Description:
Blueprint: H1 4-22, E1 27-31, H2 33-39, H3 41-80, H4 86-139, E2 142-147, E3 160-161, H5 163-169
Parallel strand pairs: 1-2, 1-3
Amino acid sequence: MFRKTPIFLVLALLIGSVTLSAQTPPKYGHMNLGNLLESMPETKAANDKLKVYADSLTAVDEKLTKAFQEAYAKLEKEYNAGEITPVQAQTRQAELQKQQEDIQKFEQQAQQMIAARREDLLKPILTRVEDAVKAVATENSYLMIFDTSSGAFLFAAESDDVSSLVKKKLGM
C-alpha cells in the first residue's frame, strides 16, 4: 500500500511537469494597418468614389459662390451708379447676407456628407480586414496583434509581423 503511493505521486509530478513545459509563452504580432489599407484595391476604389462625390459637392459650392459674387458685384455697381436707393441696397444686402450664410451652411453640410460617405465606403473594407486579422490571430495562436501605424505604444517586445498572413487571408 505504501509502495503504490510514491509511484502515483511521481506519476502526478511527471504529468504536471510535462503539462507545464508544453505550455508556450503568449505570441504577439504587429502590422501596419494604414499600409495594408493603402495596398488594397478596394480602398483605392472607395477613395475614387469618394473623390467623385466630393468633386460634385465642390462644383455645387463653386456655383453657389459664383452666383453670390455676381449678385454682390451687381449690387455694388448699381449702388455706385445711383441706380438703386439706399433702402433697396439695404434689402439686397440682407438678401446677400442670407445667401452667404446659406453657402456656409452648405459647406458645413458637405463636409459632414463627405465624412459619412467615407465611413459608408470604408466600413465593409475595415470589417473584412478585421475578420482576416481575427482569423490569422486564431489560426496562429496570437494573443494580441498591434497596429503599428497609429504609433500608440512607445515600447513593444519583439513580435511577429503578421501583414503577409493577413494579406494572404485577404487573397492579396
